[in-house]
């Protein structure tokens, strides 16, 4: 499964001349030439990632709002842990339904429906006077975010040309990071209710923007709307662009998939889908159990526990997170997915190791207590910078690339569910783990990040510069001819 060359991982089993040709060296390559980023592709991506901003805002809200909510509503630490983690419960429900919703109603309508739940949730938090309404609002946002986390990267991957797909899909992670950062920064200055009001603004922006962007051509092809598929593809590639080869490739691939029955969840556990499933589920498990949401949800608490200013720490996180996410977007289609993932996972391993050492010094070496806050800051910054570089976005990029249309609904829902379940486990248990053993918690996260490096090196293929049809055909034997 390792991506050693195009020849090994290319679509060797697809014989259609519309898909590939053979050059003198024997390598198979796609006829489809690289395409530029048109204004429609850029605008459609920006509208889609408004949902990613909502995702980031929801994740980033709990850290700066913690003290204010606990004081105003008289909540205990246990009650606030429920509030912080209940987002992921709603997201798990949304994740289970996301694939079917996206297939039944289309990518655009799915994004619109998800924002209705998110907007209701923010309003419930805004006007809450009791913890139950606060939790209900957070749960509703979670449901919307669970759908968003699947639909947005899938939509972007399906509308962008192959030479730009990685970078454009990773803008999803950039907007999540910006959403988190905005909440962290504004949370220093404004009341948590005002922060909730601000959280609802991008929900409205996406709903309005959806009226002005095309539907995914691949989804239109999947439901048999060939004329609409070609029209959407023409809009995305430009009025004067030649789309015949790309349209023919989509048609050929879709007709092949039509011969297969629509999968159910249990159908995924067949040998022909083993590669895709192991990679998709494995990356999501390792992403979450590496500790990202522990730091994202409770960054302020970590800084306070380490004896460092939470205000300065939050500002420093923003200054690191966004530039590294932008760097990851720029490198995605240059360095490739695998190298960036391995560098990113190595950095998160180092960051958690530094955090573990910081709390070890604090607990066991009194003479080095002054070093502990600095190490904690460096550890958090190294972790978030490294995570933003690749581990945040690339698993979602790969998830959107490796599953063929006939199993994308079920597989995407399963992978997204696994991601949010891991997020719930970590976000709910983190405060209790910290009480039990602070250094042990971060040493555990560091070990999992180390396993991630090995997992990527051994199992994850390189998907840069290949069409979705090529990637899926090379990984899933059920669509071979």
UniProtKB/TrEMBL annotation:
Molecular-function annotations in GO: sugar transmembrane transporter activity
Record's compositionally biased regions (Acidic residues): 1-10
Ranges annotated as biased composition (Low complexity): 12-23
UniProt domain Major facilitator superfamily (MFS) profile: residue ranges: 44-464
Keywords: Coiled coil, Membrane, Sugar transport, Transmembrane, Transmembrane helix, Transport
Region span, Disordered: 1-32
Stretches of the chain forming a coiled coil according to its record: 226-263
CDD domains according to UniProt: MFS_GLUT6_8_Class3_like (cd17358)
Topological relation to the membrane, as annotated: Multi-pass membrane protein
Stretch forming the signal peptide: none
Highest taxon listed in the record's lineage: Eukaryota
Record localization: Membrane
One of the record's GO cellular component terms: membrane
Family: Belongs to the major facilitator superfamily. Phosphate:H(+) symporter (TC 2.A.1.9) family.
Name used for this protein in its record: Major facilitator superfamily (MFS) profile domain-containing protein
Organism annotation: Lactuca virosa
